[in-house]
Specification:
CATH class of one domain in chain A: Mainly Alpha
Structural class of chain B: alpha/beta
Oligomer: heterodimer
Family (chain B): Belongs to the bacterial solute-binding protein 3 family.
Helix content of chain A: 55-70%
CATH topology of one domain in chain A: MetI-like fold
Strand order of the largest sheet of chain A: 1-2-9
Number of strands of chain B: 13
Low-confidence stretches of chain B: 1-21
Pfam family, one (chain B): SBP_bac_3
Number of helices of chain B: 14
CATH class of the largest domain in chain B: Alpha Beta
Radius of gyration of chain A: 30 Å
Shape of chain B: globular
Keywords (chain B): Signal, Transport
Distance between the termini of chain A: 51 Å
Mean pLDDT of chain A: 81
Strand content of chain A: 5-15%
Distance between the termini of chain B: 59 Å
Radius of gyration of chain B: 22 Å
Order of helices and strands of chain B: HHEEEHEHEHEEEEHEHEHEEHHHHHH
Number of domains of chain B: 2
Protein name (chain B): Glutamate Aspartate periplasmic binding protein GltI
CATH superfamily of one domain in chain A: MetI-like
Organism (chain B): Salipiger mucosus DSM 16094
CATH topology of the largest domain in chain B: D-Maltodextrin-Binding Protein, domain 2
CATH architecture of one domain in chain A: Orthogonal Bundle
Order of helices and strands of chain A: HHHHHHEEEEHEHHEEEEHHHHH
Number of strands of chain A: 9
Helix content of chain B: 40-55%
CATH superfamily of the largest domain in chain B: Periplasmic binding protein-like II
Chain lengths: 471, 339
């Protein structure tokens, strides 16, 4: 045993880095890494040099300076004295708003179109084919501009509503479709959590400062006495608040709404839905144990509706209908044409892609599944909902995530119709007024990166729940 | 070996990028054309005509500079820019100069690192509304929807004006003048606001200009002028003195009609002689040929001729000289002496 010698000691030679397979891959990786680092450092030093040549520094201080410009659609309070950072936040929220609206509508459209394209009805399936091919083969920007132009040119101006033979408001004088957008009623509260202002009986009254979710008309306004242009809403608000108002005497409560009200309502709504789901779960357990499913629908409806109605009554909710004021409709919720055009175009365009994904997902399920379901006596609709779609989801979800990300990033085309998203505020006006192109674009890129990562991580969580579980 | 070549190339590219933007004059001469940033289209100031040739008051400044530097007023590559893209285009070196009715402000000069070389139009921000609205003052615009070109000083002035007067408005941000015009005519906004000259130019292209009024309020000072990048003083001087030459030519009575006669031999007026290069060494001081100013004036005429031809009272735009008359006529146009 003692005669056994160690294997000959191999001294390490440099050539081994290339010729020895044990080290080669490592060498290549290290070299590639160095090259990448060099390229990056060149980019950075080039930027620094050019900035120095222009006499510019790299500084994010502009985010805390007053912006000086106004934004029409704002979900949080903002005026021209707010900071550039606040303007960026307003834009970011607008981007998120249109992304959520767009993803929801695109999903609905896509699923319907995808399922119907497989319909046995010749007309229906061909119509859906026309929709899909038409929308996904024409550039998105064209659709945005086209829808916007249609809405601007084909709908009446607000002042046309004043004429007797002009257009009239829809749905019981509560919805106005104009070439500046659609005005719909919104909810206001006479006992708002954000506090109500008490209007003085004089005509020079201050209007409610709305904030939070309903804040499409933010900021207070003082009507200019004797200018001949009344604001309209002030008189309407004080007229209609009389019945619901608790306070009386010297002034009347001006109904308003704040973010807290909506937070409470949403909270109650979600709690109700959670309760309803619990009831349904209990019912399923009972059904599995005894074979009989107790009636749950009235209990579920009650769980959701009763607390919601109670909260609305406690807050003193009432509908605030838009009323034609001086130049525009006042009150209610103003859905601007830019938002509607962008939302519809993004949804229709992405919906066409989602339709194809849904169709692919359904076709991926073996026909035997359908036949088996039919053999069990299920009807086609039930088969689709209970057998095919749940299985198709695991094929559909991963490409669907990409479409959601596409839609979110495509929303930066908003500038074409003047929708004030993050690209228009932070990446547009702010950059233009401060000259901070590099900083602004970096921040904008960072925002889209983070938003995309958040969306895809949420969707991945959902994907994990629907994907094939192997045990 | 390959890596060394690559690194060398990278380093060279880095150096080249670092040096870019230094000698604009050499770049322009080497290229043979002047890259000039203009609007995407504003009648009278800068817009392509039926043959696709750019015409206008701002275009005239570009052509004069090209004529002075390259000897050919047509050797200009016009780069249409919007309110949002113009500064980036200039800062990045995509264009050599910007003549796009751009307001000279403190922060643009110092913070954005540009060099305004002078003022070719003294303007102010105004409002235009349809006559049928019956508005007679901008202070009656409470609650109005206002179309505005985004990325401009007018955007900031507007916010200030409505805040100071404590009235409310709904801004509709729009990228170009053409889109703004379309939105305004469709009634998607009650008011269009921009520089008063721009309003006049826009109104001139309407089917029925008399159905629209420009409100009396001028809410800001908007001195418009050409600008170049900070840091290349020689180039800045060339653009500045080309503009001054156009203004001085009007003052001294040098027009495109009589300039050949005046420059044939020295005249009685030494100032005219120095301007036209028949006396003195002004051309070599600025790094150009002796007849640089003559070529610049020949390109489209002197300042007054440019004004009358493009935006003056006999054009559809119909702007009067007002503040833009020569100082000898009570205006603000005043060129430093050519000496």
């Amino acid at each position: 045993m003692a005669t056994m010698t160690d294997p000959p000691e191999q001294s390490f030679r440099l050539s081994q880095l290339i010729y020895d397979t044990r080290y080669r891959s490592l060498t290549i990786q290290v070299v590639a890494m160095i090259l990448l680092a060099l390229a990056l450092s060149w980019l950075v030093s080039n930027t620094v040099q050019n900035l120095a040549a222009l006499g510019k520094d790299f500084d994010f201080g502009f985010l805390w300076q007053p912006s000086g410009y106004d934004i029409n659609q704002r979900l949080v309070e903002y005026d021209s004295q707010s900071t550039h950072g606040r303007a960026a936040l307003v834009g970011i929220l607008n981007t998120i708003l249109v992304a959520i609206l767009g993803c929801s509508l695109a999903t609905v459209l896509g699923v319907i179109a995808g399922v119907l394209r497989l319909s046995n009805n010749w007309l229906v399936s061909r119509l859906m084919a026309v929709y899909v091919e038409g929308f996904r083969n024409v550039p998105l920007l064209l659709w945005i501009v086209l829808i916007f132009a249609l809405m601007t040119e084909a709908t009446p101006q607000p002042r046309a509503f004043r004429a007797d033979d002009g257009p009239s408001m829809l749905m019981g004088e509560s919805v106005a479709v104009t070439n500046r957008g659609v005005y719909i009623p919104n909810l206001v509260f006479t006992r708002s959590l954000g506090g109500n202002e008490v209007a003085a009986p004089e005509p020079e009254e201050e209007e409610p400062t709305s904030s939070g979710l309903s804040g499409t008309y933010g900021g207070s306004r003082i009507s200019t006495g004797g200018s001949g242009v009344s604001t309209g809403q002030s008189s309407d608000a004080s007229d209609s608040s009389g019945d619901g108002a608790a306070a009386s005497g010297e002034g009347e409560v001006v109904p308003t709404s704040s973010g807290w009200d909506w937070l409470l309502i949403l909270g109650v709504l979600f709690a109700g839905i959670a309760g309803a789901r619990y009831v349904s779960k209990k019912a399923t357990e009972k059904q599995e144990a005894t074979g009989k499913r107790p009636t749950t629908a009235p209990i579920q409806a009650g769980l959701i509706l009763i607390p919601l109605i109670a909260v609305l009554v406690i807050l003193g909710a009432q509908l605030n209908k838009p009323v034609l004021g001086g130049f525009n409709f006042d009150g209610g919720l103003h859905l601007r044409n830019s938002l509607i055009a962008l939302w519809l175009a993004l949804s229709l365009y992405t919906g066409a892609f989602i339709a194809e994904i849904v169709r692919g997902g359904i076709l991926a399920i073996n026909k035997g599944q359908t036949e088996a379901a039919y053999a069990l006596g299920l009807r086609p609709g039930t088969t689709m909902n209970l057998v095919i779609l749940p299985q198709a989801l695991r094929v559909i979800i991963p490409p669907l995530i990409s479409q959601y990300l596409n839609l979110t990033k495509n929303s930066s085309l908003a500038i074409a119709v003047g929708y004030m998203d993050a690209r228009s505020t932070l990446g547009g006006i702010t950059i233009n007024q401060t000259g901070r192109e590099l900083e602004g674009m970096l921040l904008l890129g960072l925002f889209y990166l983070v938003l995309s990562l958040v969306i895809s991580s949420f969707m991945n969580i959902y994907n994990a729940t629907v994907k094939l579980k192997e045990r | 070996m390959k890596n060394t070549v690559l690194l060398g190339a990278m380093a060279a590219a880095g150096l080249a990028a670092g040096a870019a933007g230094a000698a604009t004059l050499d770049d322009v001469k080497a290229r043979g054309t002047l890259n000039c940033g203009v609007t995407t289209g504003l009648a009278g100031f800068a817009a392509p005509d039926a043959n696709g040739v750019w015409q206008g008051f701002d275009v005239g400044v570009c052509r004069a500079v090209a004529a002075a530097v390259l000897g050919d007023p047509m050797a200009v590559e016009f780069v249409p820019t919007t309110g949002q893209t113009r500064f980036t285009a200039l800062a990045s070196g995509e264009i050599d100069m910007l003549a796009r009715n751009t307001t000279w402000t403190f922060s643009r000069d110092n913070d954005l690192k540009f060099e305004f070389v002078g003022i070719n139009y003294y303007d102010g921000q105004g409002f235009m509304t349809p006559k049928e609205l019956g508005v007679s003052s901008a202070k009656e615009l409470d609650g109005a929807t206002v179309c505005i070109q985004t990325g401009t000083t007018t955007e900031l002035n507007l916010a200030d004006f409505f805040r100071v007067n404590n009235i409310d408005y709904e801004p509709v941000p729009i990228e170009t003048n053409a889109e703004a015009q379309q939105q305004y005519l469709a009634g998607a906004c009650d008011v269009y606001t921009t520089d008063a000259s721009g309003l006049a130019a826009t109104r001139a292209t309407f089917e029925d200009p008399s159905a629209h009024v420009i409100l009396p309020e001028i809410i800001s000072k908007e001195p418009l002028g050409p600008l170049v990048r900070h840091g290349d003083n020689e180039w800045g001087d060339i653009v500045r003195w080309t503009l001054n030459a156009l203004i001085a030519a009007e003052e001294y009575g040098v027009t495109s009609a009589n300039i050949n006669e005046l420059s044939a031999e020295p005249t009685d007026n030494p100032e005219v002689n120095r301007l036209l290069g028949t006396e003195g060494e002004l051309g070599s001081m600025i790094g150009l040929e002796a007849d640089w100013a003559k070529r610049a004036i020949l390109a489209g005429g002197n300042y007054g001729e440019l004004f009358e031809k493009n935006i003056g009272e006999n054009t559809p735009i119909g702007l009067s000289r007002g503040l833009n008359a020569q100082w000898t006529d009570g205006g603000l146009m005043y060129s430093p002496p050519f000496r």
